[in-house]
Design a protein that fits this description.
The chain has one domain. The protein has three helices and four strands. The strands form two sheets. The protein has a two-stranded antiparallel sheet with strand order 1-2. Strands 3-4 form a two-stranded parallel ribbon. Strand 1 and strand 2 form a beta hairpin. The longest helix is centred in the last third of the chain and has 18 residues. The chain is globular and about 40 Å long. The two termini are about 20 Å apart. The site of S-adenosylmethionine (SAM) has 11 residues, from loops. S-adenosylmethionine binds next to loops.
């Protein structure tokens, strides 16, 4: 899966963030700082009980590129398709 046109550069996504593995209450969590599609395509399908996203608004915020509406919808379609693949049968998504 390719990185969407107009998505923030890897530099912008990582300049204030380093990947970290965090242990909390005997569970391991990963803070990943990279293009979301590149990251989630490596995750196992049907595994996740809850997916919460906070997608770009695409209204020209300083921290985001701005895509045409068609490109934005296509980018989000790819993300939602991947999220559906990742969800467990009884999982929930908050997009
Ligand atoms: C609407 S903002 C989220 C704001 C966040 N929920 C908060 O409360 O601060 C969308 C975020 O998605 C990030 N983003 C945009 N495209 C991305 C991509 N392809 N991969 C990873 N993050 C991306 C932007 O840099 C921005 O921080």
């Amino acid at each position: 899966m390719r990185k969407a046109e107009g998505a923030p550069s890897t530099d912008i996504l990582t300049e204030n963030c380093q990947q970290q593995d965090i242990m909390l209450r005997e569970r391991q969590y990963r803070l990943a700082c990279e293009d979301n599609l590149s990251f989630i395509e490596r995750l196992p399908g049907g595994y996740f009980k809850l997916i919460v996203t906070s997608p770009p608004y695409n209204i020209g915020k300083p921290y985001e590129g701005q895509l045409s509406m068609q490109e934005y919808i296509e980018q989000q379609r790819q993300v939602i398709t991947e999220c559906v693949r990742l969800l467990a049968e009884d999982g929930s998504i908050c997009w």
